[in-house]
Design a protein that fits this description.
Length: about 400
């Protein structure tokens, strides 16, 4: 079974380390090839200059060849053997007689002798070798330090991730990872939803129990009146039947209750805050900034109605706004108002009057939101009517719209 610990501490570490080694090896190989090419070119240029100088001195000043080669071998740490045109040894520092291959020397097409040179122990060779060794040492140190830092980083990420997971069900924690924060939001929202459903269920059960108790109690009183001869049986039976039918009519509410459709007192600002966070990624697709100024405001409203109300108003502002615009959401506790202001395409007064009376949609709005049907406002107007609230719309073409709902 896989685990986050194995993923971060082993799988990723080994994979990245392998890639790191491959990159370091490739860079060293590239440097070696590049250095080798440059080394051979430098040796070739140095060798050609040496041959030209020896050939020149052999004709122009043969007496200084020995001194020149002595000085040259001393400064450049090379092994040289030079024999003149008469096969006379002029100079050699090859004490171990390792030089066996000679090449002829010519000056203006005249043979002046032959020479053999070994650059393996030269200063130039030592410089390139030292540079390559230093590069390898630096690469090894870089690899060790890099892998150590990477391992420390992975351990730190694992501890942070583990800490986030340990507190995933808590509501008072700042999470390091967005995905776990989102999961925490879903978990805590689910817990809050369960608590809320339980409270709504219990409140409605108590209310229904009280409502159903009244006709049953009335029926029992009438039955008792019949048994004590205080009421006519036929008249009592009709009244008892009526009361029992009322009680029976309430029974489906116990079975078919839908918590989301049950109105209860809740803070709409909390819902709006959660809604904006949940759909933040959607608003960012058009780079739209959503500013909120939310004061607590308790309204008796069902979840499904509140969701439809906020969803329609906010997404209308989103759909009909251009990129980089802004949307302002205000909840005013003193005035008991919800205000949503956008910088969208706006409407003229005729359009405002139309959407407040019937399903209506302008043809030109399809370029902003092609899937709209014009049915949104009739739905929210029906919700507003049931809440005994009022709506006021101010809008101006190409400048935006402000919607005020007063509860």
């Amino acid at each position: 079974m896989n685990s986050l610990k194995k993923l971060l501490k082993h799988h990723i570490f080994y994979a990245v380390t392998g890639i790191f080694i491959s990159i370091v090896f490739a860079l060293n190989l590239a440097f070696f090839i590049f250095a080798n090419i440059n080394y051979n070119n430098d040796i070739k240029r140095t060798h050609e200059k040496l041959l030209d100088m020896v050939a020149h001195l052999s004709i122009e000043d043969p007496l200084v060849i020995d001194a020149y080669l002595e000085h040259y071998t001393h400064n450049n740490q090379v092994i040289i053997t030079y024999v003149d045109a008469n096969d006379t040894l002029v100079f050699s520092n090859d004490t171990n007689q390792t030089l066996t291959t000679f090449e002829p020397l010519y000056y203006n097409d005249n043979y002046v002798g032959k020479i053999s040179v070994n650059y393996e122990s030269s200063t130039l060779s030592e410089t390139y070798l030292l540079g390559f060794l230093l590069l390898n040492i630096a690469s090894i140190l870089f690899f060790i330090i890099g892998t150590w830092l990477f391992r420390v980083f992975l351990y730190k990420q694992y501890r942070m991730l583990n800490q986030d997971i340990d507190h995933i069900t808590r509501e008072d924690v700042l999470f390091k990872f967005d995905e776990i924060r989102d999961a925490n939001h879903l978990i805590t929202s689910s817990k809050q939803e369960q608590i809320k459903q339980k409270q709504v269920f219990e409140a409605n059960i108590r209310s229904l129990a009280h409502d159903i108790k009244t006709p049953i109690t009335t029926a029992l009183i009438m039955a008792e009146a019949v048994t004590t001869n205080r009421m006519d049986p036929l008249e009592a039976i009709k009244d008892i039947e009526h009361e029992l039918k009322q009680a029976a009519a309430m029974m489906p509410q116990f079975i078919e209750i839908d918590f989301k459709k049950v109105s209860y007192t809740q803070d709409i600002s909390s819902f709006i805050k959660t809604f904006v966070m949940q759909y933040q990624a959607v608003f960012e697709t058009k780079h739209i900034k959503v500013d909120t100024n939310l004061e607590p405001l308790l309204i008796k409203i069902a979840d499904v109605d509140l969701k439809r109300l906020i969803e329609h108003l906010l997404f209308n502002a989103f759909y009909y706004s251009k990129p980089h615009a802004s949307i302002a959401i205000t909840v005013n506790q003193a005035l008991r108002q919800l205000i949503i202001k956008d910088e969208g395409i706006g409407m003229n007064q005729d359009t405002v009057n139309q959407i407040l009376t019937k399903p209506f949609r302008l043809e030109e709005t399809k370029s902003y939101h092609k899937n709209g049907t014009g049915q949104g406002y009739p739905i929210i107007l029906e919700i507003i009517h049931r809440l005994n609230a009022s709506i006021h719309i101010e809008s101006e073409l190409n400048k935006g719209t402000t919607i005020e709902i007063t509860f």
